[in-house]
Amino acid sequence: MNKMIKKFKDGNVNIPSLILKVALIWFIFSFLIFPNINLLINVFVKDGQFSTAAVSKIMSSARAMNSLKNSFILATASMVTVNISGILIVLFTEYFDIKGAKILSLGFLTTLIYGGVVLVTGYKFVYGSSGIVTKVLMNFFPQMDPNWFVGFGAVLFIMTFSGTSNHMMFLSNAIRGLDYHTIEAAKNMGASQGTILFRIVLPVLKPTIFAITILTFLAGLSTMAGPLIVGGPDFQTINPMIKTFAQMQNSREIAALLAIILGVATSILLIIMQKVEKKGNYISVSKTKAKISRQKIENPVLNVIAHIVAYVMFVIYMLPVVYVFIFSFTDSLAIKTGRISFSSFTLKNYRHLFEMPSAYKPYLVSLVYSIVAAVVVAFIAVAVARIVTKAKNKWDKVYEPLILIPWLLPSTLIAMGLMMTYDVGRVNLFGKVLIGTPVMMLFAYIVVKIPFSYRMIRASFFSLDGNLEEAAKVMGAKPFYTLRRVILPVIMPVVLSVMVLNFNSLLSEYDLSVFLYHPFLQPLGIVIKGASEETATTEAQAMAFVYSVILMVISTASLWLGRYGGFSILKRIILRRTKKEAGDKE
Amino acid sequence: MIAFKQVEIKYGNFVAIENLNLEIQEGEFFTFLGPSGCGKTTSLRALVGFLTPSRGEILVAGRNVVNMPVEKREIGMVFQSYALFPTMTVFDNIAFGLKVKKFSKTEIEGKVRAVADKIKITDAQLQKNVSELSGGQQQRVALARAIVLEPKILCLDEPLSNLDAKLRIDLRRELKRLQKDLGITTLYVTHDQEEALTLSDRIAVFNNGYIEQVGTPYEIYNHSSSEFVCDFIGDINRLGKNILTEINTQLATSFKTDATGFVRIERCLTRARSGFAVLDAVVQDCEFNGILTKYTLSCMGETVKCLEKNDGYMFYKVGESVELYIDPKDIMQF
Lengths: 586, 334
Known about the structure:
By secondary structure, chain A is mainly alpha-helical. Chain A contains 28 helices and 2 strands.
């Protein structure tokens, strides 16, 4: 403290930096720490005494206990099925020589461009009572129940084919990183294809598969859209149940406790994952690594089976996307009956989106929320990453673990914490009640996206050449000038990618929104979910198709920009054009 | 111009430099030479201001700069990685410091072009992004950026180490010419002996946080003050008791026979020289690289290497007996 006072007296205090640090501390305390502590207090403290009343309430609630049981059953089952489908699609597209692998991989990558309620709604339209699959099946089995696609099986089916994004991103990369010489060496020593796959290839991929398995388990545990839309009354899991309980004034502490249980399970699993990751992956010891080349399956029967399985899976992946795309161009009759003729096609739905305020408002709402959140998150992540990487004292390093808190917490827990904390005026928010205001959801969007953004941006700070700052300093540049003119331009591609990916995933966000949205400002996720309900009008369904298609287009563009080097490609094109123009002028 | 006085630099509890005392004259090309981790870069960074000594003074033109901010020291720096700003063009990289110092647009334009001209950076290159340049060109930009502010001192931290051998030699020559033209006091850090010998007016040889010897290249090479310097600066033969005794007998010299004698390998000859000690030897190995031939000889139970210029004679064959000539003046003992 004395040091600080001396610094002040000497005029050695960087005032803007101090204000920024104080603002960050306020934000971290108000939105990352206090709501969660308050949630715990709400659940476990009654009249100033420790109380386990909430635990007893859950134990005596058959619905709550059932949801817990169902969640763990779903997580365990999906862990197995998602791994099977995930490993298979990666082997089909990266390891085995399957004809048309490039097209197949496009199909398998569709899970990256839509998820959550949009995806489940898409599956429901395909497999639901008026869906194409149900129609085809009913031709063969006229007695079957058209509402067959409900319950545990339906949820698991959707998860099996939609939960493979991590496999396509990380496992594919791991396979591409294999040293082909190890496979050739095994062949040289007489190993069969099966031996090579199970003894050489898969063991190397084990750490990646393990990490993905944990992420899959977590996804199963905290899934919201699946059980909510196709779970039916008999198969509800924790998250939908939290939503239900949270809406009942008397049961909010059950909702809170369920969220805490989910949070504890998530934290434990993520910590285990980190421990395993730290133990290390199998890094190739090869000095001259060879690129993997696809393996033709030598056994003709197995080869045919592999091709059949690959293409059936491709159809399952593509059906919802194609179905949603086609039906977004049809009239309400076609949507209602599931039958299409040439006269069904219309651009009316798309016209509505641009002409009717009620149609474009959800888009506008989600766009504004997502853009603002993405920008604020990027700002916070850059600020904290800068403070942490430049940390001279131990206090500056504390920002890092604090800012990562939401990484351990499921969205529902974050939402519950905010809901149960800011339903009354609090000193830290100058007595303002946040619940029921439009900013509530914005804060939640920001909180939930901070850990991912911070990790990515911090990595780019660490990979910077330390001499850059020193070079600027030698030439007389002040720290903020250096940050603005030297550092930020270098890390900007990463910051932009993070912003785009955050924007993209927030656009159809549902899990947080359902707790916190303002009734007059319904975001897309809520509207699309509404359209999947039996009571929804065909107009609403048609709009949901249009929303979904546009979301997929935006997602594809965002992924291209954010993950597949779109920004660099754009920059190259612009540079080339500018140079050409300059050349023409000369 | 520059003086280090009893400078101590620590990283936590580790003492990187213990008691550095050194004076560098104005306009001098001075090199810090030594193996990795010897403290040469640390000393340079302390002069520039990236490190603060825990003790001692660093004087520049008589003024202690230890607590002076980096930007006020008027020192230009070229980093090993060049540290060029990757998002800027060559022009913007060179102009960066001028912009920070708020020079007018015309002044910036003039100064950048003048320095670019001096360092042979073309107009077309000025408009390029630095990532589009080759290593050698990037090196020139780093140099231009360091001198455009007309600093009093230029510091170069292993600036040629990322270049291939031929380019290194070319740039070395240019660097020397530029330094003489500008007359700027230059501090150069390297672990490359040849670079240090060719470039420097004087060299300080560092070892484990100490300076082993300060001197001109001639003094350092031919009259090394320690076994470390002798060994580090070039190839040497270690002469043992048998050879030293024989030399003492032949030439009435008084080399200590219980200590090792050191002689550069190119100073051991196989062609007759008067006034040299003559020793019988047998060729054990022969490596010819075009210009020179390096022989490994067995002499009085010891191994001696010698270097002969390619003078058109046939090589000695392995197993052949030869006479080995050593000038006693070339023998160093510590």
